[in-house]
Amino acid sequence: MKQTDTTRRYVRIVAAVAALGGLLFGYDTGVMSGALLFISPEFDMGPTEEGWVTSMLLVGAAVGALTGGQIADRLGRRMTLIIGGLIFVLGSLWCAVALTVLMLGAARTFLGVAVGAVSIVVPMYISEKVPGDVRGKMVSLNTFMIVVGQLLAYLVNSALAPTGNWHLMLGMAAVPGAILVVGMWFLADTPVWYARRGRLDKARETAARAGMTLAELDIEDRVGDGASISRRSEWQALKAHRWLRITVLVAMCIGITQQITGVNAIVYFAPTMMNQVGISTENSVYTAIVIGVVSVIACWVGLQIVDRVGRRRLLLIGLTGNVISLIALAVAYRFADGNTAVAMLSLALMALFIAFQQAAVSPTTWLLISELVPVKIRGLGMGIAGLALWVANWAVAQFFLPLVALLSGSGTFVMFAVLGIVALGFVRTFIPETTGRSLEEVGRELKERFDR
């Protein structure tokens, strides 16, 4: 179907409103990098407790990712995002009034449920609402908003650093949470969800508003047996078809690939790492802004090129850059203690790593997960893939500081580089190119490749 100015405008509005979930995701994962410097002495926390408080968000996120897709199948993508926005509001306020480490950990876990759910449902919602020729850019807008949210968190942390008011740092996320609820209230659900509920007229109407047909979303050819698909559980479909199981496994590994080089070790702990090599606490908070600015610029670049360079090729470029950056960082960080110039070089190498990650690795992994998981098991499959991503994220957050204490910062960065080489081998072997292809075409190739 031909795109018009009206459909293009609608597609941009849909993606922008839904991507507010990404902004919240970014803010709540990034805010602890600075807040932790003030929370830790107030609660007399050691490295293990610091890792625990940070990682409890990710425990909740793992639960939210696993259940969010299935809730989105049951209640709708739109309603799931509305509920997620409400949890963001309540969870942020709970964090702000926490009086103990245990209470803060519980609040972060509750907040994490929303983070995990929106991390899966936002790409799902956008990929099912926009045409294939702009799907890469529109879905990647979610990734861009994640890094905007992280930068916003760093700026809030820096503004409040002189006061040490970590309560306000954590509580500020309630504002965009409320905006997400209001924005999603005025949008329709996706054609895929309407079709699976048997509302084919509504599905066609919603697809047409975005300049699409149902066939582009891998729906039209199954209209006749849609009832049987809706009656059969996604678990049954997964057990019945080998290619679906392998596809979900590949999607899980894509999620792990995003985390395996330790991106969130830098996102969460860059100020802590700078503080450990002699940078003052207040200046360490400001170094996070460098990471945030580079993230936003790099992600914007990735947003512009993802539909031209290709998902698979861009992911390979990003992982290669990650490995090179980590090896250089391992060498520099070894000599950074007490040497301001070398410490700044280490920060520059962290920023270089983040540039490759946010321009290439993060946008392509979220995008590939949303494109590879077939429509017939979409909620369950994306939930399982998201669970793998968040478990890997949790492992990095929980064990990074203890690993630094055990292996040193340099040794830990070398370990991440080796894992990056493993990720490169996986992508080369198993990931197909999806750029410019409809969900129907991608599903057909996966079935031909894995159903043997």
From TrEMBL:
Record bears the keyword Transmembrane helix = yes
Which key words are in the record?
Membrane, Transmembrane, Transmembrane helix, Transport
Q: Which residues cross the membrane?
A: 12-39, 51-69, 81-104, 110-127, 139-160, 166-188, 246-270, 285-303, 315-336, 342-368, 380-401, 413-431
Query: Which positions fall inside the Major facilitator superfamily (MFS) profile domain?
Result: 14-435
UniProt membrane topology term: Multi-pass membrane protein
Q: Where the protein is mainly located, per its record? A: membrane
Q: Which Pfam families match?
A: Sugar_tr (PF00083)
Its subcellular locations are: Cell membrane
- Protein family (similarity comment): Belongs to the major facilitator superfamily. Sugar transporter (TC 2.A.1.1) family.
- Output the NCBIfam families linked to this UniProt entry: SP (TIGR00879)
Q: Record's PANTHER family?
A: PROTON MYO-INOSITOL COTRANSPORTER (PTHR48020)
Q: What is this protein called?
A: Sugar porter family MFS transporter
Q: Which organism is it from?
A: Corynebacterium suedekumii
